[in-house]
Amino acid sequence: MVTYIVREGDSIFSIAENFGVSESQLTSYNGLANQPGLVPGQAIIILSPDITATVQPGDSLDSIAAAYGTDLNSILRNNPGLSRGETLYPGQTVVISYEGEKLGNLSVNGYAYTYIDRKLLSSVLPFLTYLTIFTYGFQTDGTLVVPEGDEELIGIARSYGVAPVMLLSTLTEDGVFSNQLSSAIFNDAAARENLIQNVLSVIREKNYYGLDIDFEYVLPSEAQAYVDFITQFREQLAAENIPLWVSLAPKTSSGQPGILYESHNYAALGAAADFSTIMTYEWGYKYGPPMAVAPLNKVREVVSYAVTQIEPARIFMGIPNYGYDWTLPYVKGESDAPSIGVEEALSIAYNNGATVQFDETAGSPFFRYFLNGREHEVWFEDARSIEAKLGLIRDYGLRGCAWWNVMRPFTQNLSTMNALYNIEHVEL
Length: 428
Hints:
Largest sheet: 8 strands, parallel, barrel
Radius of gyration: 22 Å
Number of helices: 15
Structural class: alpha/beta
Strand content: 15-25%
Helix content: 25-40%
Shape: globular
């Protein structure tokens, strides 16, 4: 994989011609079809096909996969412009594999709400090992609050060989994480057992593969109660071979202050669950000053600490699939930056004549532009930032990554991941 930085005057045609690759393939794996134009400073990945198939009359993606000893998901990952069941035409080129050595195997989790666009979901699933559906809630007596439509997502995920994971959180209908809910469950044995049995019932009835627990802002005084809760949950799940994930705040030390961090005991929670997902994002956030959502230097600090507390092969590192658009000047307590997709960011840059810059320390792209007399600053993710983050997974021997979330298109970043790693799948 080669990463090319767009210069003034470049076009998709000129870049494809310069590197001797197909213009349609370049457009496809970079997600350029819906972009109004290229932006100076934008990162473009170049993938050189190793093995290709020329479609013959009567061929299908399934028959081509079988003929080359591969699987349909691999074909779809290498040809993101194609979809399952698509009618092929004679003479069409299908990429079987690209040149370049892979860094190894990677387990990939993606989070989705039940209202995700189904076409987008279908384009993302070939790149995933797990699809975690956000979110089940609960009441103080252990009664579940059920998201509408999760059965359909479970069925779609399984049809792609992707393992559906149920998510249980303390998120309320008001969109905030409630430590009153966690306290109620921790301190009421009957309610706790009711919650566990209700979750097990849903997993069995709806055919979920595993469970992810995300309790945020747990009271520091209840840190051990949280560990005991996870331990009790895992014991009952393990009896039915159901894996358990726990989502953890991004800490850099055991004594890190703050209600978000103090109750998340990495060593104890990491040992209590089968896997841990470290939420390595939101340094740059909606109400904060402009900066990268997941600065590489900050992410590295968290991962460096995490592997001293949790077995690396049981860690999933979070990766953001979004950015923010801040209006300047930033005013603490007043500024409110909207979240934007990574492909949306490039459209904003193009439409406003911006040039993408790259912060080497944060390992992230950004740009500034003016709109209605106000300056804006946008930070997002691209192939360079994703490659660097995925490099940490190799360097520290982590199990995989977890995309928060897959609700917006991010074709180039998925293509980058596919170029670097073999995507693992589990037995369903």
